[in-house]
Amino acid sequence: MADYKALEDLVVQVRRDILRQVHKVNSGHPGGSLGCAEFFVALFNELMERNDTFEMDGIDEDLFFLSNGHISPVFYSVLARAGYFPVEELNTFRLLNSRLQGHPTTHEGLPGVRIASGSLGQGISVSIGAALTKKLNNDQHIIYTLCGDGELQEGQNWEAIMYAAGNKVDNLIVTVDLNGQQIDGSTDNVLPLGNVKSKFEAFGWDVMDIEKGNDLKAVMSGMKKAKEKTGNGKPVCVLLHTVMGNGVDFMMHTHDWHGKAPNDEQLENALAQNPVTLGDY
Amino acid sequence: MKKYTDTGKKDTRSGFGDGLTELGKKNKNVVALCADLTGSLKMDEFKANHPERFFQVGIAEANMIGMAAGMTIGGKIPFTGTFANFSTGRVYDQIRQSVAYSGKNVKICASHAGLTLGEDGATHQILEDIGLMKMLPEMTVINTCDYNQTKAATIAIADFEGPVYLRFGRPKVANFTPADQNFQIGKAVQLQEGTDVTIVATGHLVWEALQAAETLNEKGITADVINIHTIKPLDDAAILKSVKKTGCVVTAEEHNFLGGLGESVARLLSTQHPAPQEFIATNDTFGESGTPEQLMDKYGLNASAIVAAVNKVIARK
Ligand SMILES: Cc1ncc(C[n+]2csc(CCOP(=O)(O)OP(=O)(O)O)c2C)c(N)n1
Ligand SMILES: [Mg+2]
């Protein structure tokens, strides 16, 4: 197990990476990214069994798919700091000729990315496919997926959710970033999701909550519990209660920072709230 | 040469938003649907003025298209709003069956088309939408060039009975067509008169074509510049008339050459009046992240690329 303090430091550094990436190009999505920093850090550094080198096929390792591709800044930061590519490459986020496209893609061959995402609602389906291949290959590893809560409004998710339960895809853990926000406002105002837990349960999933989605310890222990639930004939859903923009006071509890970059002054303020831990890229 | 002045850079999507606002006031049957992109599509004002005629569907484009088709039954005129990618590829079968084949009066309004969407990258930069939509029988396909034209087109399509795909973009670009223009669906707009080459352009490339024509003029080459805002139905007569005079054509669009305006022009010419043609378009590729200018430069979609294509096509006459 990684040293807990080191992981806490990593979370703060990841927040800095997110803020600096989007600030530099004055575009990208800090809100959802910040809210998922603890999740990504826990997943890549504590939960997933990962091979040292990146191979697309990911044989004998756990795989992760990001369905809500717009939160690429957190994904890129955690991938880089997990050693998939040089941290300095975060400097190229959204620039011409970069491997760090606005939304994650396999097209430029960025290690750590196994599917393009950005157009919402497709990740669970892809994850089911990868999970089925694991089974066909007698590979006991797990597929992890993250999707947004607003994203669940896409009908394709529910086709996938129905399939996974009906076909006992039990090597799959889908985490929903339940931040209650999307572009045009709160999910309640845009299109109420209703009781997400009962919905997944009604479709036949094993569902659990992580109430403190921005508490690293809670995320780590919650995700471990989720892992224990796999292999029991049901796909597993984790409802991760997060705060959009977490860790930067003026970005929290609003949809305003879903897809807006901070200006110079705001960046300085935001970084001051998250002092350097591991070192900036 | 006619002189065209940019009256101040504006985004075409604001032309859509302002056109919709105007429509809301004058046509009670106009309703608007949006899939969690109200601000990006500039639909806020319509929403504020007519909350009862505005439908926020959430991130659920397929449902939005189906709902829009249903709302036409009983006489409403639905305008759907989302990015071009999610307005077409994402919902192709819904459009095909519930809108086009069913002959429903839905206006599919698509912003952030093409490379000029910029930093979001290829997942959002659709370069195939004109092709997808023009292939659908009975679909009208419009790609406007500036703010004024987009506003005029938005208003005009409400009075036209039938499914329409209206394509526009994200960045602020030159606004140079008249504010009081009479937008006629299917009618080409001749912007410059020349004898050496025909430049047929659509969308953001129209302004670039005008810049190219000025550069060429300084070198003694005169160009017919034709703004094709309606790709389907194509104004065959205007294009044929021009190419019969000039003997060659350059087509220019922010789209893949496969399936785009250029192919429609090539089909017309090959059957009626074969002539050398060069294509300013993307070359069967996805886009990528970058600023709009960088991308238009990298993928050869600007005035200097048009000038080079003109020189090439004239040499082939
Ligand atoms: C199919 C599709 N429709 C619309 C969009 C535009 N879009 C990008 S992010 C987003 C909101 C996503 O909400 P949520 O999943 O809750 O993510 P969060 O805002 O919490 O990060 C929308 C509508 C998209 N990327 N894909
Ligand atoms: Mg959300």
UniProtKB/TrEMBL annotation, chain A:
Pfam families given in the database record: Transketolase_N
Q: Which UniProt keywords apply?
A: Thiamine pyrophosphate
Instruction: Answer yes or no on keyword NADP.
Output: no
* Transketolase N-terminal domain mapped to chain residues: 13-268
Q: Which family does the record claim for this protein?
A: Belongs to the transketolase family.
Q: What is the taxonomic lineage of the source species?
A: Bacteria, Pseudomonadati, Bacteroidota, Flavobacteriia, Flavobacteriales
- Kindly provide the name given to this protein in its UniProt entry: Transketolase
Q: Which InterPro entries does the record match to this protein?
A: THDP-binding (IPR029061), Transketolase_N (IPR005474)
Q: Which SUPFAM superfamilies match?
A: Thiamin diphosphate-binding fold (THDP-binding)
- List the cofactors: thiamine diphosphate
From TrEMBL, chain B:
Q: Where is the Transketolase-like pyrimidine-binding domain?
A: 10-175
Note the superkingdom of the native organism.
Answer: Bacteria
- Give the required cofactors: thiamine diphosphate
InterPro entries tied to this protein: PDH/Transketolase (IPR051157), THDP-binding (IPR029061), Transketo_C/PFOR_II (IPR009014), Transketolase-like_Pyr-bd (IPR005475), Transketolase_C (IPR033248)
> Pfam families annotated for this entry?
Transket_pyr, Transketolase_C
Query: Does rRNA-binding show up as a keyword for this record?
Result: no
Q: Which SUPFAM superfamilies match?
A: Thiamin diphosphate-binding fold (THDP-binding), TK C-terminal domain-like
SMART domains in alphabetical order: Transket_pyr (SM00861)
Protein name, per record:
Transketolase family protein
Which organism is this entry from?
A: Aequorivita vitellina
Q: What is the lineage of its organism?
A: Bacteria, Pseudomonadati, Bacteroidota, Flavobacteriia, Flavobacteriales
